[in-house]
Structure to design on (426 residues):
């Protein structure tokens, strides 16, 4: 079926630097609105726009370089760097700075995102060669972005639930429950909170919004049906990454609330 | 208290203690009576109970796990004197009926004097007196006295 629809594919329209300069006009609009109502965000918009240009240009050249050199270790290094940055970002969003949370988040993102990436690239997309950066880096970027949010939500919610449900958790322990049983409800709620955004996305994708990757593929000249196929894989992949990452974060983080003797640690201790 | 009814609360303890489903209803009623609560309260939501009733439910819930020792941390601190006396009477009765060892932490000397067999006075984390309740508490009359005579170590300094 795909072959008969080749007419749907078109060459991409190139953007020139002049086009991009014209696009700056859009930034002026956002700055204008911010000034008008004194939101205090005008400066941030300007800095943000500048950072967007610099960061994306840098990434663009980096990708060109990685694609050109085409070595597995360069790809691996890029993926690990992305992983480290994502772990740091997820932990930085937490109010409570628990020592060890960075390690727990790192392991969760490595396993949750890494296993999902392997599954998709090896068994679904059949990426060739196996380290092909043109596939692995964008796929991992999408996985990590979602997994990172899930990790941050899960950790934040677990800390909150363990705080508000402290008397309940203590009552369980007093009645002889182990820490797993005592923290069952906080764990359940943290997992739900971290996975609900992904479930919601699965429900409305294509109706409320067109996903960025699919849009990009279509603009780049792909057959929309091929773009849809890829997007379906991506959605499933995000679900897996989010679920795996959240459960590892929550189970790893749960342990830090209890002592080795299954006592609830004092607040802030 | 856990969310839900009084019965839900006892059920959590029953589950943890491995009480069989068939025995639960009878056991729950028995323990309610033991804690001197009406078994009809079993269907009431926990948050509708008075503070004193909640403490008694907590007692019944703890007994559901068939403990040999009960450790109660200030069980009467939120209760007025009359309710405190009633609860301590119930607790005292439990040690007789169920042959339980009950350890109560309290700031009220009168409670210790009236209900304790053995009393340990702890001051700043250290045991300063230990022994027969009447002996230990004989000279202590008001709460300030709980600190007991000057710490021998401190006095010698």
């Amino acid at each position: 079926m795909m072959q008969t629809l080749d007419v749907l594919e078109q060459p991409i329209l190139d953007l020139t630097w002049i086009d991009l300069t014209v696009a700056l006009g859009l930034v002026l609009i956002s700055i204008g609105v911010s000034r008008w109502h004194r939101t205090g965000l005008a400066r941030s918009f300007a800095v943000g726009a500048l950072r967007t240009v610099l960061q994306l240009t840098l990434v663009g050249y980096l990708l060109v370089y990685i694609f050109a050199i085409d070595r597995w270790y360069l790809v691996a290094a890029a993926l690990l760097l992305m992983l480290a940055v994502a772990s740091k970002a997820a932990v930085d969003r937490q109010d409570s700075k628990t020592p060890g949370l960075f390690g727990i988040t790192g392991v969760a993102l490595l396993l949750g995102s890494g296993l999902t990436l392997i599954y998709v690239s090896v068994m679904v997309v059949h990426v060739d060669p196996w380290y092909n950066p043109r596939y692995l880096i964008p796929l991992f970027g999408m996985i990590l972005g979602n997994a990172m949010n899930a990790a941050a939500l899960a950790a934040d919610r677990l800390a909150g639930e363990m705080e508000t449900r402290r008397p309940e958790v203590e009552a369980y322990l007093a009645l002889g429950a182990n820490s797993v049983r005592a923290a069952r409800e906080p764990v359940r709620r943290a997992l739900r909170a971290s996975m609900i955004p992904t479930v919601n996305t699965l429900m409305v994708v294509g109706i409320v919004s067109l996903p960025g990757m699919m849009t990009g593929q279509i603009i780049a000249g792909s057959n929309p049906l091929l773009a849809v196929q890829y997007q379906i894989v991506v959605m499933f992949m995000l679900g897996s990454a989010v679920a795996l990452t959240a459960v590892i974060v929550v189970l790893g983080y749960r342990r830090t609330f209890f002592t080795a003797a299954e006592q609830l640690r004092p607040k802030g201790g | 208290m856990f969310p839900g009814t009084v019965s839900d609360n006892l059920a959590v303890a029953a589950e943890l203690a491995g009480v069989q489903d068939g025995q639960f209803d009878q056991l729950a009623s028995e323990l309610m009576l033991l804690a001197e609560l009406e078994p009809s309260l079993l269907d009431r939501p926990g948050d509708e109970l008075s503070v004193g009733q909640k403490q008694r439910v907590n007692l019944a819930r703890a007994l559901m796990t068939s403990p040999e020792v009960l450790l109660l941390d200030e069980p009467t601190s939120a209760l007025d004197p009359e309710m405190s006396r009633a609860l301590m009477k119930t607790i005292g009765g439990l040690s007789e009926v169920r042959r339980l060892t009950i350890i109560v932490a309290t700031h009220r000397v009168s409670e210790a004097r009236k209900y304790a067999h053995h009393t340990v006075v702890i001051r700043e984390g250290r045991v300063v007196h230990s022994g027969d309740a009447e002996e230990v508490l004989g000279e202590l009359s008001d709460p300030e006295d709980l600190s007991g005579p000057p710490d021998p170590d401190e006095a010698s300094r």
Summary: The longest strand of chain B covers residues 126-132. The CA atoms of residues 110 and 141 of chain B lie 8 Å apart.
